[in-house]
Every structure is written in structure tokens, then in C-alpha cells.
Amino acid sequence: MSHNTFGMDVKTKRFVEYDSEEELQALIPTLSGEVLHIGGGSNLLFKGDFDGTVLHSAIRGIEELSSFASNPFMNEDEVLVRVGAGEVWDEFVAWAVERGYGGVENLSLIPGEVGASAVQNIGAYGVEVKDVLVRAEAIDLQRGEKRVFENAECAYAYRQSIFKNALKGRYAITYVTYRLQKHPQLKLEYGNIKAMLSHKAQPSISDVRQAIIDTRNAKLPDPKVQGNAGSFFMNPVVSREKFLSIQKDYPQMPFYDVEGGVKIPAGWMIEQCGWKGKSLGRAAVHDKQALVLVNLGGATSDEILTLCNTICKDVQEKFGIDIHPEVNFI
Ligand SMILES: Cc1cc2nc3c(=O)[nH]c(=O)nc-3n(C[C@H](O)[C@H](O)[C@H](O)COP(=O)(O)OP(=O)(O)OC[C@H]3O[C@@H](n4cnc5c(N)ncnc54)[C@H](O)[C@@H]3O)c2cc1C
Q1: How many whole angstroms from 135 Cα to the centroid of ligand 1?
Q2: pLDDT digits 0-9 by tens, 261-298
Q3: Which of 17, 67, 107, 201 is most exposed by smallest CB count within 10 Å?
Q4: pTM for this one?
Q5: Per CATH, domain 227-329 is 1.20.1250.20
Q6: Long-range Cβ contact pairs of 130-136 (< 8 A, separation 24 or more)
């Protein structure tokens, strides 16, 4: 079974899968050397064999926690759902949409597992997991103790969390609780979703999910066919001053006003540098989405890294902006 969607042919010394918190806690004293907790391996680039233990959660289950009647902190339009970290993310989204529970439909078809959603703060089409995440339950991989992180303790920002920074590698996420809406408010402002649904008088969350699935299938490479890890780079946020000075030279440059500045799509800049659809060795920039680097078959991590570094240099030279990988290098 493949555990990295980039399709790197790498090995680990030890691979352990557990299916309960107790089993994980019992395992901890047996861990020595480097430990890496993975999910579906869809945001990882292995730079070589892993000389340690790779952990994987098989904790499953989707449980509706409580209703308004039994929880005074909830609004009667909401439902709390606790999900095992080893559930496939998109199967949870399908579960929610089937029941008419809104909040995660814009995150349809993002590869990976529920545990990683809390680590990565996954996002798409104007929604991020931090908007719906209530808490993440976790086990300390050094001490074996359980800790519950409420949303405010997770230090969420664009594709960032405490689990990727200050507490990197320290905790295994075991369960995540999300707050969903019984009367969903659709978010259609991003991308072409509104246009795709313009023929529907009152689109449902199922319609939104389907439109997003269709768009993603048309634009993004299927990792089973062509190895990739989705967006390879994060979209940079620059100061308004810097944005205005670059805009003078590139008036057609797309942008989004965000907290702390202006976000510029890295894919657009990469395309302007002439990289869309181009390859370097067996690594290439996807021909429909320049933010995605693909393995043309048998690419080494060095080939992917050389392409990554060349693109970063070209973007810096042309726009004076540093772009950074979103993918986790292991
Ligand atoms: C085709 C494609 C499209 C994509 N589109 C998007 C998108 O639209 N938006 C987006 O945000 N991302 C996207 N991604 C990236 C990827 O899907 C997400 O980052 C996802 O959350 C990774 O999940 P995973 O289970 O595969 O995690 P992995 O890649 O295995 O791990 C990612 C990180 O999470 C940590 N981790 C995983 N599970 C646990 C756990 N249980 N406890 C503690 N740490 C854990 C790992 O150590 C690692 O640091 C895309 C990827 C692909 C291949």
C-alpha cells in the first residue's frame, strides 16, 4: 500500500498502526529514535528512507455528540460530531453532506485523513478547518498523556497550527470534533462555484459538493495516476505597500485582501515565470494548475527539490516575493 501520494519509493525501519488511544499509549515506551506520525501521506515529500518509526492511526468512527437539548453551549441549529483521526477526510465530508449538515462541503475531495485536517488547517474555496473545528484530542508521544486542545489553543492560521510549529511531532491527534450546521449557509464566493450552480434556484450542499468535486477532478492531477501532493507552495501574503508597487508592473495580477496584507496566488506567479506544464528531469509543473508539482514517473526527491528551488528563485527574481513550500519535507 502506498503511504505517500508523491509516489516516492522509500522505506522506513518500522511501521506501526494502532486503533485505539490505549494501544498508542502502550506503544510509546517501545518507541526509540525518530518518530513520524503520518495520515494518508498526501502532503509529504520523503527526501530518502526514514530511519525511525512511522506511526499511523486506524482510529475510526463518526459520532454525533449531543444536541441542543442536552448541551446549553450549543445553538439549536448546530451539531457536534466527533471523528476518529484515521477516518478518511472525504468520507467524513460525504457523511456530513448526506445528512444535510453544512460546514465542510467546500472541503470536498481534499485527500488525507481527519487527524491531519487538524494539523494542516486544510482549506479550499473560502473555508478552512479552523472555521468548524471545536477541539482536537491528542496523545503526547513523549509522555503518553492525553491532552485536549480547544480551537483557540491550536494557533490556527493559513495552513498553520501549533501542531506544525511549536508542538511539531509532539502529539498524535486521535479524535477531532467539528461543529456543523443543520441549516447550512452556503459559501459560493470562491472560484467558479457560483457560476457552476447558477442554473439552480436554491442549490443544496450536495450540489456544492458535486460542483467542487467536478472542478477538482478537472483541474487537479489524481495522485493514483500522477504522483503529487496537491499545492506544493503556499500563497504568499505581502504588505499592501509591496502589493501596490508590484501591481504597477502587473495590473492584471489576481489578489485577495486578507488579514495582515494581500494574498497573491503563487500559481499565477509561477505561470508568469513560464513554468506551467514545464518539466525539469522527471519532475514537472502540472499543466492545468501551476501550484502543483508532479512526479512524471520515477522522479527522485532531489529532482522535485531542484524544480522547487528553481521556481522559488525565478519568482523571487521576477516579483521580489519569496514563496515557500506547503508540503512537509521529511
Ligand atoms: C491532489 C491533492 C489535492 C490537495 N488539495 C488540498 C486542498 O485543497 N487544501 C489543502 O489544505 N490541502 C490539500 N492537499 C494537501 C493534503 O490533502 C492535506 O494537507 C491533508 O490534510 C494531508 O492529510 P494526510 O492524512 O495525507 O496527512 P499526511 O500528509 O500524512 O501528513 C501531513 C502532516 O500531518 C501530520 N499528521 C498526520 N496525521 C496525524 C495525526 N493523526 N496526528 C498527528 N500528526 C499527524 C504529519 O506528521 C504531517 O506533518 C492536497 C493534496 C493532494 C495530493
Answers
A1: 18
A2: 999 999 999 999 999 999 999 999 999 999 999 999 99
A3: 201
A4: 0.92
A5: no
A6: 130/154, 130/156, 130/161, 131/103, 132/103, 132/104, 132/178, 132/179, 132/180, 133/176, 133/177, 133/178, 133/179, 134/80, 134/177, 134/178, 134/179, 135/176, 135/177, 136/163, 136/173, 136/175, 136/176, 136/177
